[in-house]
Every structure is written in C-alpha cells, then in structure tokens.
Amino acid sequence: MESNYFRRGFGLKSVIAAPLAADYGSAVVESLRASGNRMTVGPYQFRLAQEFGFCYGVDRAVEYAYESRTKFPDKKLFLVGEIIHNPHVNDKLRAMGITFLERGDDGEFDFSGITPDDVVLIPAFGVTRNDFLRLGKIGCIVVDTTCGSVLNVWKRVEAYARDGYTAIIHGKHYHEETKATASQVERHPGGRYLVVFNLEETAMLTDYIEQGGDHEALARHFENKSSPGFDFTRDLERIGVANQTTMLAGETMAVAAAFRRAYEARYGAEHLAEHFRAFDTLCSATQERQDAVHELLKDPPDLMIVIGGYNSSNTCALAALAHEAGVRTFHISDSDQLDVERGTITYQPVRTRVTETVANWLPPSGVIGITAGASTPNNKIGSTIAEFARTAGLEAELRAALEPANA
To answer: Which residues are catalytic?
Structure first.
C-alpha cells in the first residue's frame, strides 16, 4: 500500500482554507473569544468554556477530507464509517460526493464496490487491522486521518500483547475507536483484550481477580466485549490498562486504580509489575475540554448547553460532568434542536441513548454555560446561541452584543 498510502495531506491547506471557514466559521464564537469567552445578551450572560469544539485531530481529519476531494476531483471517494461523530460535518462531506461505507448485517464494512482507482478515507477513529489489510489487498488510494492520540493508544495496546499482557480497554465496545484499538492485539499470536465500560464492570473483574468466582457468568457478560476465546481463568493473570481516548479522564484513572489495588491484593506489592501495567493514554484535547468544564463549574451557571453528536463519546462526557455537578444540562446535537416557534428543546439526557423534548426550559434570566465536543464546529456553537436569543426574543440584543466585534 506504500505508494497509495497518504497520512500527511497533500499541501493544499491554502486552497481549502476559504471553504472550511465558510462551512464551519462563526462570527458569534469569534466575538465571544474576543470578549474573554463571555457575552451579555439581555438578561442572560453566556459563558463559553475556555477549551471547546474542534481539536487538532478533528481539524486534521476534516482538512484531509477536503484536500482529498480537491486532489482527486474525478475519482470516487469513499469514507469508512463517519469522519468524526458530528452529523453536520458528515453531511457536508456527503454533499461533496463522498460515499459513506456502513457495516452490514455481518458487522463488516462492505468494500465490494471499491476498485484500485478509488480513494478511501480512514476516519479520525481509525479502522481495525482487518479492515486496513482488506483495503491494502484492493490496492486503492488510502488517505489515513487517524488521530495521533489514537495511534499512541494503539502502540500501548500492541506492546501489551507483545509482552503477553491482556489489554483492558476502558471504553465503549461498540465504538469505532475501541474496535480499532482492540484489534491491535492481533499483531501478536495469543493477543487478548477485554473492554470495560464503567466502574461497575471493573468491580466484576476485580472481585474475580481477588476472590475468584463464576468465570462462566463473566464470560456471558463480556461475550461481545472480549477477544474470541477469552479465558477468564488464564487471561487475567497479567493485564495492561488502556482507554478509548474520549472517556471521562477521572473514570479512566479510577478504573486503572481499581485494577492496581486488585493485583496488589492478589500478588503483593513486590510482584505488582509482573501482573499489572498502566500508562497515561488520555487524549490531551479531551482532557483540556474536560478541565475547562470543571473550571467553568467552579462558579456554576444556571443552565448548561453541551453541543455535539449524540454518538460523540467526548461530548457525552462533557454533558456528564455538568450534570453530575448538579447543573441543569442539555446535550443537543445541533442548534436545530431548539424549536423557536414551539419554545421547546430536544436533547439527550445524560447516560441515555434516547432523546426527550421539553417546553418551558428557558430560565427568565441567568448565566448560560456553553461548551462543545471535540467534533463540533464553531458555526454550530454560534447558531445555538443565535437560536437561544431568538427563542428568548432577544435577536436585537444579540446583534448589539456583536457590534463591537463587527465594527
């Protein structure tokens, strides 16, 4: 795949700069930044988290997609899954003529329509080793936008497998990034992985490590979350902890700490290194956005709006932080979730996978906290604030607030 494999873009940033700014820029966000991330509109003060929205990895992935369309204007372009978990961005790419590949009933992506003359984009989450090898056999042009932070986790998981340690991955087993990360154990014969979602699942394993128990019940519970043929009596002897890069940082650290305690209790502190490994594989951008929400919550707003795809793990984590701090929180996928005419908002309650629509959600006044996941473009943040102002009947006041930035 060497001659057909591209990971560093095509040097077309200056060509795509204007289309990117037009598609994703926001005068409202720029005004907020210029005023210290605060803006008063009528009886409301908007406070934008210091770190929010597109991270470097997402910027890079979107730029490479635009560059690829420019570089290969006459070729068919395919994307394995979604470039990032944001419906607005993905819709833009579809409008550019990029075909999105989906998993079939067998759980595999359908590559049957790809020829050696075509271009295939690998998303920011990466793809499994099997999918990468399948693309290599086709001989198509591959543009790899996998985030560097994800690659760092892959290296750690691969090292665990190489050294005979089972990779324990804190993540969502159905998420594309976690699927790709777990597949890295396949680089070594006998490589094993197991995915834990939360501290409750972690406790099931640590109890077993310390005290033994019903390994068949564990096998049933983790059937779709572990490598084929996973043997709980054998494959938990030595583990290394990693994570999906967009999980809650504090929870990942708590998961690692729980496993550390279990192995120390089982084997003694002097033998801990023989059975347990853990390294910091948290994404710096994810950490920065979570830290920014923690900082904003030191002086809690009256209401928090978190903007980003409902299937965006890092966005869900930001909403969870605000909700668990006791702030009324609305995680919306887009500004169109605010229905101005009806005065309703449609949102995804924290730690659910459903949406609800509620009326009378707007407080009469107060501080409105705003943040957005790492896959949310600025224009969706700006349009959310604009729709909020429309709902409150404050369009003129918003224009007036923006005038200094537009002067």
So the answer is: 177
